[in-house]
What we know:
Layout: E1 5-10, H1 15-24, E2 30-36, H2 45-48, E3 60-61, E4 73-76, H3 83-93, E5 98-101, H4 111-118, H5 125-128, E6 132-133, H6 136-144, E7 148-150, H7 154-168, E8 172-183, H8 198-201, E9 206-207, H9 216-227, E10 234-239, E11 246-254, H10 260-270, E12 277-279, E13 297-303, E14 309-316, H11 320-334
Parallel strand pairs: 1-2, 1-4, 2-3, 4-5, 5-7, 6-7, 8-10, 12-13
Antiparallel strand pairs: 8-11, 9-10, 11-14, 13-14
Helix pairs in contact: 1-11, 6-11, 7-9
Enzyme class: oxidoreductase
InterPro entries: AGPR (IPR050085), AGPR_AS (IPR023013), AGPR_dimerisation_dom (IPR058924), AGPR_type-1 (IPR000706), NAD(P)-bd_dom_sf (IPR036291), Semialdehyde_DH_NAD-bd (IPR000534)
Pathway: Amino-acid biosynthesis; L-arginine biosynthesis; N(2)-acetyl-L-ornithine from L-glutamate: step 3/4
Amino acid sequence: xxxxxxxxxxxxxxxxxxxxxxxxxxxxxxxxxxxxxxxxxxxxxxxxxxxxxxxxxxxxxxxxxxxxxxxxxxxxxxxxxxxxxxxxxxxxxxxxxxxxxxxxxxxxxxxxxxxxxxxxxxxxxxxxxxxxxxxxxxxxxxxxxxxxxxxxxxxxxxxxxxxxxxxxxxxxxxxxxxxxxxxxxxxxxxxxxxxxxxxxxxxxxxxxxxxxxxxxxxxxxxxxxxxxxxxxxxxxxxxxxxxxxxxxxxxxxxxxxxxxxxxxxxxxxxxxxxxxxxxxxxxxxxxxxxxxxxxxxxxxxxxxxxxxxxxxxxxxxxxxxxxxxxxxxxxxxxxxxxxxxxxxxxxxxx
Length: 350
């Protein structure tokens, strides 16, 4: 395993693509061999992201001009809806290539649920059925043997790591979950949008996609798998005036006589051997600055003042464990590399 894997990145001019470049550039087993960005074709990554001035990287090209047969893996950072047909074309050109999709296009297993939430029929149904949901801590064995991994969204990663072990252990009532989620503006992508302008997003807090956010069915899908029944959650996301970071506060009803300490104990047991999931000690509250720039997740449990209820708080960096970092963690598994390779950065604080 001494030879480096040749990596391509689709959509390298977006925030998730750029963070994949940042992390892979220092990965001991990876060589960035192709970068695509159709709107910036011909430019260097240093032109698009000046903080890459010190790296010797391939020029950005249109995705159609890449020779996919020369690559071992591709990371896809394209917007949802644009990914399906491109990935199908890449796999047709090179059936052995490993695909790490960071978009939402292959996360939902049910084709009708996808059509309902994304407004059109899935355009690569044969691949949708093949894709493995890429929440590393829960699907490690399937990911290791997969060809196409659908890396989870940032909100689902934070929420599911906090709640799935509790649902599986039947310590919470899965029919009574309220999730208050907050994310930095990079979660909205790099495209120009009025609501992410500094003068509109700064010094304020705003909810968005209330009752309609497309991460809700993804959360319900995976909690439902853990609980063994269909689940509907109350999920409301908010935009907070910072570049990166995410914090989800989940309000849950205890079940079977469980206590908040039981919830914390179940999480500690579930993640005792996980390199990137940290369960905070009693009385310690997770904060975004504890994980900023890292692949770590921090989870805390607090007793609610309302009897038989608890509050579960989880935080991560939406561009790392919530996207590019988790994709690299999955890539490591797919190639039989140490799972932590290229991902052991300590959080940036302050």
